[in-house]
Structure formats: C-alpha cells, structure tokens
Amino acid sequence: MSEGYPVATEDGSKALPSAAHVGQRVSIRSHDPEGGFRDLLGHLVSPTQVRKKNGQIVTFDPSQIALWKVVPSQAISTGIFLYDTMSRAQREIVISDGKALRMYCCGPTVYRDAHVGNLRTFLLGDLISRLVQVSGFSIHSVQNITDVGHMVDDLHEPGEADSEEDKVLTQAAMEHKDPFTLARSYEAKFHKDIARLGILGFDIYPRASESIELMFALIQKLIDSGYAYVGEDTSVYFSANSFESYGALSGNKLEELVPGHRYEYVGDGAKRFHADWALWKAAGARTEMVWESPWGKGFPGWHIECSAMSLHYLQNHVDLHLGGIDLRFPHHENERAQSNAATLSEVTDHWVHGEHLLFEGRKMSKSAGNVLLLEDLVQGGYDPLALRLVFMENRYRSQMDLNWEQIAAAHSTLQRWRSKYQEWSKSELHNDQAIVAELIESIFEPLRADLDTPKALLKLRAIERDANISDRTKAQVFESVDKFFGLDINRVEVARELPTGAEELLTAREQARKARDFARSDQLRDQLLELKIKVVDSPAGQSWEVIP
Ligand SMILES: [Zn+2]
User: How far does the centroid of ligand 1 lie from the alpha carbon of residue 360, in Å?
Assistant: First the structure.
C-alpha cells in the first residue's frame, strides 16, 4: 500500500502510516482553512516535513491530511501546467506510471447532434493530447460514449422543463427508431464532427451499453464495502455520507444539498439520505434499454459508467480527467466518490474543466432555438477548422461568446495563412535553425502555462508580420507549430476562379438581398447556378462555391 488516508494514532490524532517513510517522494493533500485542499509534493524529511523541488522545507499538520501517496520514482514531470479544479491552482501534469499519460474525457450522450459548445470541450482534449505528444510524451486516452438511457434530471439543461422521461427513448420514439439504432447514428455523426474539427481522436471509445458487466462488478464492490445499499425499490444507491470528502471537488457541502435541489431525483423514495444517488435504477414500467442485474431488471445511473470505464481502461488511475464545467457537479463529484471508495485511493490526479460557450450572447439550448452545429458552418461555406481557430483564440477556462463574425474572420485568416505558407515555402533563402527553434519555443511557452492559446496565436501573428524574419523561417515555424494548432496550414487551397460575368451577378444579388428584394435575389441565384456557382446564405452574408 503506497497511498491512502492517514491512520489514527494512539492519542486519537492522525499521522502518515509507516508505508510513507522518510526519504520517499510523497504527495500530500491537506484540508486548508478555506474549505478547499492544498497539495504538497516533495521528499519526506520527517513525519511532518517535506522538502520541495526548490529545496524549501514545508511543515504540514498530519491531522489535516485528506490523502497521501508515495509518488513512484518512475513518474515523469511533463513541464506542462494546467489548472486543477480540485486544488484550485495550476499544477504540473505528471505521468504517474512513467510510460503514458492516462487521460479520461467524459464523452457525448448520443441521442442528438453534439452542438459547438460540446465540441469546444472535446477540442480541449485534443489540444492537451497534442501538446503532450508534441512535447515528446506518450498518452493513453479514453472517452466514453453514453448510449444507454438516462433520466432527464441526470442530463438536465437550464430552460428545459423538468420531466422524468428518458431523452434517448423519447428521441427514438420521435424518430421512429430503435434506441440503439438511434444511438449508433448519432455516434457516427459525433466521430464525423470531431474529425472535421481536426480532433485526432482518443485511443478508445468504450460504449456504456457494452460496459454493463464492468458496472455490475463495481456496484457490487461498493455494496460489499458499505458505500452503497439496495433500496426498497431494488435500485442501488451510493451513500453520500459514507464518503468522507464528498464535495471536495465542487465545493458543495452535503448539508447544503437540500431536497428539491434541481439535481435531486425526486421520484425515488427509497433513498436513505437526500444526497444519495442511484448507481442502478429499477426498471419500473420501462421496457426498452433495460438489463437483468443481480438486483433485478433495470438500467445504470449515469455517473457509474465513467467510474467503471476509467478504472477498467486506465488501470485504476487517471492522471488527467477532463470535462465541461457543468459536469463538475454532480457528475464528477459523484464519480470521484465512487472511484475513490472502490480503490481507497485518490484516483484522479488532475481535474481539468472547460468553460461554457455562449452563442450570440445566450446559452445554447433547444428551447431558445439557438443551437449551432458544425454542420451549419459547413453549410454556410465555412471551413470547419475556422471554428477550431476561433476556439483557440479564447482561453479554455474563460466563458466565450461565439458569433458569425468571428467565424468569418477566422475563415479568412486560415485562407491567408495557407496561401502565405505556400509563398514562404518557395523561398530558397538559407535560415538559421537556432532562430527557428527560439520562435517555436516562444509559442509553446504560453501553451505549457495553462494552455494559453490566445497568447500563442498572438505570437504566431507577430511572426507573420515581422519583416525581419525570413520567409523560409516563417514557413518552417508555421509548419512546425501546426502539429499543435491543427489548422492544415500546408493545405493547398483550390483556386476559386469565377467564370466571366459571375462577379457582377454576385454583387447584384448581394444588393438585392440588402434591399430585401428576394424575388430578384432568387432569380440571380438561379442565373449563378447556370454558371456552376452555388450561393450559400448565412447570417454573416453570402458566400459561394464552384460546383465541380
Ligand atoms: Zn463522465
């Protein structure tokens, strides 16, 4: 045992157990007076003192220790720092097994298209993954596909009416499809969307429906160890009170989670405590997407699937766990409780959360009617990588307000960079490799400091404009950093030449639309079609493409 909780001493106080002895490298997580946690990493020089990397000796109070761990000597420091929601500070990403960074990202629920806000979170996984790999490290990454039904309160979104109906089943009924057929079709769309956004993809995408046995084993383990119980309704619940540090991730306190809170599933009266949650739900009247289980027919709760999959596919430890900020509570809080209780260790080293995305000033929701899909951009004639660029112009940890003007601007920036890259590459001039390396480093430095993509892109723009930097150097820098940015800088844009007369027709059509003369504008669109020019309208204006 090289990690766990502190042990009680004879006088009733707490201490590190003998397994953590002087000389070892340890990580100690202590309660701080403000209700959060503080992490201390270094070598133990006495039972109450740690020597940090910079030589500083820090004394800690053993009675305040929440968890301790001997950090294996094979652990690799990556030099990449990211904000950790748990300790509320920037911390270095560490590859704990010395081989590959174990990363888990909560994936899509496949009953509808992922909107661009979901894609922003998925892009964050790609940016971290690329940064780790470009820095010379390996990564082993997992993202789950939620393809089983869940109660609406699990997936609740503001503005949507409270209801106990299941979203997957509801959507399947609406589309007259078998729920699994529906899930597979949206799963395929998810993969298509992330590929168009230049996301290289995770190593494995396990499906919840194919991980039911893993969930059974984990739930049984939690029942056996007293963390979970079978309710009178034959649902299985996790006992929130049984897990000492519940709330540490989100800052929520059990006593404040009063019944009637929006996360509370009010339908089950078999819970012993209001903040307990279902690991397994009895089928009740439901007939689709139900499984036979040791506790009767039913279906899994949402939170348990991520614990089951991350523990199984990443060998009981997650170096970095990712998700949107809305998942911090209750999803990640509950996942942490389940995983830690099952392994008696702090399973996740680093919690990274991406912020919300607004579209034209408002949160995207079906009820507000402003859900933007990647397909909408493509239909509008934009390169999907323009969205990738817009996202990177904003820090992942800031709330961002997306609009069409930004997308149009990023689209033209991409085209400019690609054509300049082709020009620069033609230059025969000799270039100085030391300068190239220095410029590349000036871009990666802010990226390693909590993924400051806006700052890195500012540097890139400055390099583009700098007359003192040779064309050949610019080409080499752009090509090299594109391994991170993923903007297809070396793509040769197909020349878009307008046939004679088309330019005038396009101008006339734009004027007709401005004058709201739609009959005239439609007539001009048909004339353009005869010239093999397809016109596409979007809120950002008119764009066109040549029909092959
Ligand atoms: Zn999850």
Answer: 28
- 301: CA distance to ligand 1 center in Å? 11
User: Containing domain of residue 47, as a range?
Assistant: 3-71
CA of 378 to the centre of ligand 1 (A): 29
- Answer whether 141's CB lies under 8 Å from 202's CB: yes
Query: From the CA of 534, how far away is ligand 1's center (Å)?
Result: 42
Q: Length of the chain, please?
A: 548
Which domain-ending residue is among 310, 336, 354? 354
Q: Which of 354, 384, 412 is the last residue of a domain?
A: 354
Separation between Cα atoms, residue 118 and residue 374, nearest integer Å: 11
CA distance readout (Å), 45 to 21, 51, 57, 96:
9, 6, 8, 22
CA 154 to ligand 1 centroid distance, Å: 11
104 with 183, same domain: the answer is yes
Q: Taking the CA atoms of 443, 449, 454 and 455 in sequence, report the sign of the dihedral they define.
A: negative
Domain identity same for 420 and 302: no
Residue 133 lies in a domain: yes
Q: What angle do CA 332, 337, 343 make, to 5 degrees?
A: 120
Residue 383's SS3 state is coil
> What's the 143 CA to ligand 1 centre distance in angstroms?
9
CATH number for the domain harbouring residue 28: 2.30.30
Query: How remote is the CA of residue 309 from the centroid of ligand 1, in Å?
Result: 9
How much distance in Å is there from the Cα of 303 to the middle of ligand 1? 6
Does 350 lie in the same domain as 227?
A: yes
Report the distance separating Cα 386 and Cα 117, nearest Å.
Answer: 15
Residues 107 and 173 in one domain: yes
- Digit-by-digit pLDDT tens for the chain (548 residues) are 578 888 887 777 788 877 777 777 888 988 888 878 888 888 887 888 888 776 677 889 888 888 888 876 688 889 999 999 999 999 999 999 889 999 999 999 998 899 999 999 999 999 999 999 999 999 999 999 999 866 544 444 433 444 456 777 788 788 888 888 989 999 999 999 999 999 999 999 999 999 999 999 999 999 999 999 999 999 999 999 999 889 999 988 887 766 544 444 445 568 888 889 999 999 888 888 899 999 999 999 989 999 999 999 999 999 999 999 999 999 999 999 999 999 988 899 999 999 999 999 999 888 888 999 999 999 988 999 999 999 999 999 999 999 999 999 999 999 999 999 999 999 887 778 999 999 999 999 999 999 999 999 999 999 999 999 999 999 999 999 999 999 999 998 766 677 888 889 988 998 998 898 999 999 999 999 998 888 877 766 777 777 76
CA of 423 to the centre of ligand 1 (A): 46
Residue 297 lies in a domain: yes
Cα(150) to centroid(ligand 1), Å: 13
Do residues 329 and 188 share a domain? yes
Nearest to 265 by CA among 252, 253, 251, 281: 281
Give the pTM.
Answer: 0.80
CB 60 within 8 A of CB 37: no
